[in-house]
Please model this.
Amino acid sequence: MSRLTLALDIMGGDNGPHIIFDAALTALQKTPHLHLILCGPLTIMSQWLNKQLPNIQARIRLCDCPQQVAMDEAPAHALRYKKQSSMRRILDLVHNNEADACISSGNTGALLAIANYVLKTLPGIDRPALVSLVPTINNGKVYFLDLGANINCDSEVLFQYAVMGSVLAEQIADIKQPKVALLNVGSEEIKGNDQVKQTAKLLTDSQHINYIGYVEGNDIFSQKADVIVTDGFVGNIAMKSWEGLVNFAIQEVRKASQHNWLSKIVANIAIPFFRSIYLRMKPDQYNGASLIGLRGIVVKSHGNASSESFLYAIREAIEQVEMRVPDKIKDKIEAVLMERHE
Amino acid sequence: MSRLTLALDIMGGDNGPHIIFDAALTALQKTPHLHLILCGPLTIMSQWLNKQLPNIQARIRLCDCPQQVAMDEAPAHALRYKKQSSMRRILDLVHNNEADACISSGNTGALLAIANYVLKTLPGIDRPALVSLVPTINNGKVYFLDLGANINCDSEVLFQYAVMGSVLAEQIADIKQPKVALLNVGSEEIKGNDQVKQTAKLLTDSQHINYIGYVEGNDIFSQKADVIVTDGFVGNIAMKSWEGLVNFAIQEVRKASQHNWLSKIVANIAIPFFRSIYLRMKPDQYNGASLIGLRGIVVKSHGNASSESFLYAIREAIEQVEMRVPDKIKDKIEAVLMERHE
Model:
């Protein structure tokens, strides 16, 4: 297989660069054709690189970046003043075709803004989306978008999200004719706001999308759909509320565990279990999130990511490169636009 | 204390009228000044009433209603063709001042439509809201609205929701200067859609609301606010997604319990615990939901309610009557409107 190059922002995570170094090393060991460009302060990176075996060193390029985007930095500020940052550099590398994809676990808002500016959207796509996999019953998964890239989405943008989610489910999750649903307040046709109703019409009219209709909030985890589309306002609030709910449940278990020795034992067994659900309910932490619709592949790993979840993000990026996801999105959008003019 | 009369729709629940009869009996026994008007088919009601003690019989009036609104009936259909239904009758009784408040566990959409038509909104209130208490950490509770009464809410409607939620928290939960927050995708001022930003401005400008700013999805259960306001689209999807998430967690526990005898025991102890969280996460089931902003008190008990949760709905209705919630909402809205003209 031909060489595949990823650019990694080593300054993004809350847990320091070693999380990313560990993931990088594992990925290089497991994927012989993988090459990496690490972006960050040279001293930190070379100190680590010098300790590695020659065949690993040969597949890593270091790219010194004196600046760093802070986790709480305003996206507009990062876009304007952080042109020498590791986050900006990984996107420049994708834009210049020096890297096939990039990964950051930094400030999501800044990553969205800079990626949008540097890479631009694909032809036919108005706005990128932030998408992640949400676990469902029976070990299923659903592509859920948008997680907050765009707060105001008209029906055309929501339609494009459906196309992009459908391509991801087909190419990455290997689902033939993935079932695409719109998130709504009821499953009957008359339900919902104008934006949702208009999107439903666009989806019903397209032969290229296997549109199954509306799903409600309680259907998200039920495996009814392979792709669930909503605007970034609803998607962001829903996803964050799941995180809050599981946190709340963990607190309740802790409280219940104070009653007697039996409840203490039960709680000690139950809490790790809750934690695992908690992690699964923070999909961007567990699975990484992808920024799709751009002329390049951008994967977002959680700021608080472990080495394991950063590795997951690397694998996601590799798969998107190998399945040529941006090209497939472009093709599908073209087909849909052609269909409208027929 | 002077007589207090509630009208109960006995045909609403999925579990049959006996759930409601049981709750009615308990309420009458515990609240000496309570009188009830039961609405439904006369034969069912009189069969039950004949078995009761004379002092209970004396405080119950039966109101024969030949029609019933089905759980899946379109609200417009119910409004037009079910004028002899038990749901319509309880609202007529409130409208005619024969009852101080009414309770139904029937079709929410139909109840909203008929209540809005029969009772009309209070002066200064454009649209009613569906509100419920959501549990938070440390045994706290937050008034969360709108749960789906209105899908499209402009900033003026959201502002009115903040006023109504604030009145409920003050009068029913007895919180001085309740902290009111807007649900948003970030806590910084620049975040959110126009509708949220405009509402924030209205709330900041008002001396009558203790507005604390934006909260995010993960803050809902964290006790940051006493009242959280969002539009019915987001509120409905968020609340239903919590139901879905807890259901999903229960399934996961069941699955995990298949591993060995120890996990089976743990699961058997954990599942009832999960169920209790599940019920708390379906706030309208656990706490009932109130339809506020109307010229009358309407409490919605869940369709699948137990006798206990219907009793909770009765207590909620009694409290709203005793605290004169609609009058207080009217007064507060008047004060706010006066303030704007100063």
User: Anything to note?
Assistant: Residues 232-256 of chain A form the longest helix (25 residues). The first strand of chain A starts at residue 4 and ends at 9. The two ends of chain A are 40 Å apart (CA to CA). The mean pLDDT of chain A is 90.
